[in-house]
């Protein structure tokens, strides 16, 4: 037999596909799908809450706007005219033009609202937060306009002036920032208070404890190898405390309401403060207080 064409050989390979990895992958995808569906439900709920808050804020803003419109009408009586008289040359008589209706501009009380103790405590609390976080007067004015139950900047400034008038604050000497009270002046105020309460008699010795606390929870990280940055200058502390140190060294007796008292000083405070003043290290550390 004659062969009339080329001859070929074929090999057939069969690869068995394992179904277990596919099942695992399918199960994993199904779990991710369930998580995405749950996340979608949460996002929808969150969006509904946001819409609800926005609607409430809008309603509150509308009510507040109506309140300010009413307030403006009340205050406008003090600064604008509600009518105008014009001479009519033809009749030679004055004609009155009403700019605003008389009933729309009722008079208001000129005296400011008297503050009770709770109001003053509330203002002092906000004043403390304003100073703590260094909020400017301009920023506070904008916040007070948009927020509820916040004292306005006028009340804040008024309370600052009243507090400053209660104490004779003076800047500390030296380059470091700080303020101080006169030691003798402050001590006399305390003695007068003790005299009124009958807690001190003429000629008694007044014992005064000197203490301090330098804890600053919010202070950042300090690397001790950066000596110029990490360690404070002793000159700053010496200069800042120069006035009270001089006053206390010269003040052995003090008089108040024709009564004279001797003074005795004591150094007190926690172990850290005492170690800091004396330049010593605590029992559980290897170095002196930094």
TrEMBL record:
Annotated coiled-coil segments of the chain: 26-71
Superkingdom per UniProt: Eukaryota
Keyword terms, alphabetized: Coiled coil
The protein's name: Uncharacterized protein
């Amino acid at each position: 037999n004659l062969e009339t064409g080329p001859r070929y050989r074929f090999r057939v390979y069969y690869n068995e596909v394992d179904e277990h990895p596919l099942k695992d992958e399918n199960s994993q995808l199904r779990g991710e799908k369930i998580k995405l569906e749950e996340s979608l439900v949460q996002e929808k709920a969150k969006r509904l809450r946001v819409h609800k808050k926005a609607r409430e804020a809008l309603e509150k803003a509308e009510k507040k706007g109506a309140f300010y419109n009413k307030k403006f009408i009340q205050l406008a009586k003090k600064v604008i005219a509600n009518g105008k008289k014009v001479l009519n040359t033809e009749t030679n008589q004055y004609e009155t033009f009403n700019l605003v209706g008389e009933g729309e501009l009722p008079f208001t009380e000129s005296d400011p609202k008297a503050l009770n103790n709770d109001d003053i405590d509330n203002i002092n609390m906000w004043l403390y937060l304003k100073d703590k976080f260094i909020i400017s007067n301009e920023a506070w004015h904008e916040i007070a306009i948009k927020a509820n139950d916040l004292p306005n900047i006028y009340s804040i400034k008024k309370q600052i002036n009243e507090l400053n008038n209660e104490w004779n604050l003076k800047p500390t000497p030296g380059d470091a920032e700080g303020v101080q009270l006169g030691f003798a002046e402050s001590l006399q105020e305390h003695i007068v208070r003790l005299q009124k309460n009958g807690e001190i008699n003429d000629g008694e010795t007044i014992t005064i404890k000197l203490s301090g606390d330098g804890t600053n929870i919010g202070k950042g990280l300090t690397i001790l190898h950066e000596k110029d940055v990490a360690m404070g200058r002793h000159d700053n502390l010496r200069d800042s405390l120069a006035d009270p140190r001089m006053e206390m060294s010269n003040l052995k007796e003090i008089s108040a309401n024709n009564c004279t008292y001797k003074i005795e000083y004591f150094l007190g405070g926690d172990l850290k403060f005492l170690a800091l003043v004396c330049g010593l290290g605590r029992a559980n550390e290897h170095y002196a207080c930094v």
